[in-house]
Design goal:
Strand content: under 5%
Distance between the termini: 19 Å
Shape: elongated
Structural class: mainly alpha
Radius of gyration: 17 Å
Order of helices and strands: HHHH
Length: 146
């Protein structure tokens, strides 16, 4: 066992756990709570800012450690099977789609200050669905023997 690849993979898993867990908390706990009555706008703004910051940090960690993990995974192989590359491309596409939803939600927030459901909460719903799909593809890629 090599320590460096193990630590990088561990960081990747921790990032995924916190990122998907945060989205799940928002979708299953926070959004129903906020829908039960008019939410205090100050509380909603604090939650939104904090979540966008944390989500962005975890997304950055996942992208960096994911690239490093890919490098560790293909080390020693001369050729990567096309099916593996295709599955990895789908995973990367979903990650880019989630990042785009975060960025566009953040940009649109200036125009939607009065809206009840903030962009970060919409982003949480999108991210949770995409996150579950990404974790499935990651498990598939991890089990793939090539």
């Amino acid at each position: 066992m090599e320590l460096y690849p193990t630590v990088v993979h561990w960081l990747h898993l921790i990032g995924a756990i916190f990122w998907i867990g945060g989205n799940a908390y928002q979708v299953f706990i926070l959004i129903p709570f906020l829908n039960s009555g008019p939410p205090p706008s100050e509380m909603l703004q604090k939650i939104s800012r904090r979540f966008i910051l944390m989500s962005s940090v975890f997304l950055l960690i996942l992208v960096v450690t994911g690239g490093m993990n890919f490098g560790f995974r293909i080390k020693g192989y001369e050729e990567i099977p096309p099916r593996y590359v295709s599955a990895l491309a789908v995973k990367v596409f979903l990650i880019v789609a989630m990042g785009s939803a975060l960025v566009f939600g953040f940009i649109r927030r200036e125009d939607e200050d009065k809206q009840r459901l903030s962009p970060s909460l919409r982003h949480a719903k999108i991210s949770l669905v995409f996150g579950v799909l990404i974790v499935f593809i990651a498990a598939m890629l991890r089990q793939w023997k090539f």
